[in-house]
């Protein structure tokens, strides 16, 4: 297969290596406005060749395209790829704003061109096993779901300026995991956020963003979801999910690389080294996710995360953003109603 890759920043460069390692991918066609990023990828990946624009990439006869560009370009690039008839994988979120996301949803609704949205925890073996346990009824009635994403260091200020904020670019992974594992939709959100007082103003305050956040979710069946996020976790990259039921409880992410230090005397677990970033903690999930996309592109399997599915997460992020801003609980019905006016 010939796969196109738009965007060669942190995640795009990582995807280039992952795609190059897939047996089904014979050639990569890549593009990025930063020449150094292009040179770095083509220099280390023999099967990668560069073109000078996304349109040139779409015109090159690729069998599928992976969009790893900035969030504020997602909507335009998805529409261009679908118009060209190219199967598309786009990193989360669907788009930079809920209005743009709705426009994308409408644009692809009548198309038979698949658009897969990237939520890698759906492919992490531990998260898959947790979902299987829930769906098999092993835990009984679910009472609480806890999802965590703690980054070891914040992304660049330039990224934060266009990311849409912590709820739209970080918490969405947790919102999606909660929805996907439980099979339940979120109905109400209560979010709070804090700003690191030592961070430069352009990092958070200038963008109305937060460096740490917590969100309390109410799911359709009454289950409570608890989401925890921070941009700076000194011990490492922490991605976990706990699901508690009346008969049993399970957890994903409790491995030897868990970035926690026990204060219980005599306890040496986890032994480390701690996960440093998503590249090591979720490497297998990303590989399985992109391998699945190559099969989606050929029609071999159904799309595991459609735009319509991802909109449930987008609405949750919208409600969380409003909740933290106005210091009150917000229902998804409210934000949907406002957006549709």
From TrEMBL:
<dbReference type="GO" id="GO:0050112">
    <property type="term" value="F:inositol 2-dehydrogenase (NAD+) activity"/>
</dbReference>
<dbReference type="GO" id="GO:0000166">
    <property type="term" value="F:nucleotide binding"/>
</dbReference>
<comment type="similarity">
    <text>Belongs to the Gfo/Idh/MocA family.</text>
</comment>
<keyword id="KW-0520">NAD</keyword>
<dbReference type="InterPro" id="IPR036291">
    <property type="entry name" value="NAD(P)-bd_dom_sf"/>
</dbReference>
<dbReference type="InterPro" id="IPR000683">
    <property type="entry name" value="Gfo/Idh/MocA-like_OxRdtase_N"/>
</dbReference>
<dbReference type="Pfam" id="PF22725">
    <property type="entry name" value="GFO_IDH_MocA_C3"/>
</dbReference>
<protein>
    <submittedName>
        <fullName>Myo-inositol 2-dehydrogenase/D-chiro-inositol 1-dehydrogenase</fullName>
        <ecNumber>1.1.1.18</ecNumber>
        <ecNumber>1.1.1.369</ecNumber>
    </submittedName>
</protein>
<dbReference type="Pfam" id="PF01408">
    <property type="entry name" value="GFO_IDH_MocA"/>
</dbReference>
<keyword id="KW-0560">Oxidoreductase</keyword>
<feature type="domain" description="Gfo/Idh/MocA-like oxidoreductase N-terminal">
    <location>
        <begin position="1"/>
        <end position="119"/>
    </location>
</feature>
<dbReference type="InterPro" id="IPR055170">
    <property type="entry name" value="GFO_IDH_MocA-like_dom"/>
</dbReference>
<feature type="domain" description="GFO/IDH/MocA-like oxidoreductase">
    <location>
        <begin position="127"/>
        <end position="246"/>
    </location>
</feature>
